[in-house]
Fold:
Amino acid sequence: MMRSNRDWDRTMATADSLDNLAQIRASVRALCTRFPGEYWRKLDRERDYPTEFVAALTDAGYLAALIPEQFGGSGLTLIEAAAIMEEIHASGGNGAACHAQMYTMGTLLRHGSDAQKAHWLPAIASGELRLQAFGVTEPTSGSDTLSLRTSAVRDGDHFIVNGQKVWTSRAEHSDLMLLLARTTPREQTKSRTGGLSVFLVDMRLAQGTNIRINTIRTMMNHATTEIFFDDLRVPEENLIGQEGEGFRYILSGMNVERILIAAECIGDAKWFIAKATAYAKERNVFGRPIGQNQGVQFPISRAYAQMRAAELMVREAANRFQAGHDCGAEANMAKLLAADASWAAAEMCVQTHGGFGFAEEFDIERKFRETRLYQTAPISTNLILSYVAEHVLGLPRSY
Structure:
């Protein structure tokens, strides 16, 4: 039997917070029992959005975990938020349907004006408004964010936005979008990262006219889209922070995103390991449980060790963030190691189950497809390796 999460939590929390973490984990697990494998399989089959699950998380205050209590949020730490996402995935669910609401609001919280925060955050915290769409990636730029082409041109007290975004997940299920657009042509900027600005776009006012959203069907039920902006008018009051400083603003939130998604990967790995371990004890071939064979034991044990090592890096990254320290290297390595651990566990779980690993009713093939995403998104593992090479090891910039 795997050791409890409480044992792992001791590596990341003080004694005073252990009970709170345990309560959060238990509450999330209890909530997830209302949404068993059949629920997720039906959604996956029909490519539907988990509306009921997202509503339950909202009612429990989990999607407002990182919003301060003064704005109606739960005021939890990143350590506690990571535990929420981990438990969702360890229970067989998929937090990707709504995890962006936890971290996209960070740009508004850290860089928005007092008036903006007072206006938007309480409605986001209560679930009255959804902020789950993050418009950054474009078809021609991909991970090269500084080359994005979507423009926002000032017109009196408005900005006129034209362009296209792709892989903007949950846009069809979000009222608001955090949009990164170019407000100064690249050739006129004084710095490499200048000229980009962040806007909070109220999509309810323009969808179907100045905003067109097309669904992109993918190998997993991820509710992702491409979006076209045609002379979209965004009020100047929806500009977050200073014009031209947007790239710096979104960077400050990416460490949170990577830590939370790394926690999801840890949850996936734990689910695969638990699933494989249980099956290896129960499945009898040639008169003995297959888990008695070292050829089955060793891959499960290796996946467990890999998960455990990745989990410690996730804890380190969350602790450093919570303490106010620079955690860029740790957040990136946590995402890399956790994604690798979840993918290795997924491969192991399929192999342990043999043909049954491909059967829909076991949920393995669904989780297998879902966890594969994190080798590529929200940042490619190759880009993380480039980051470590340059910023940790001091090697020449490769791109």
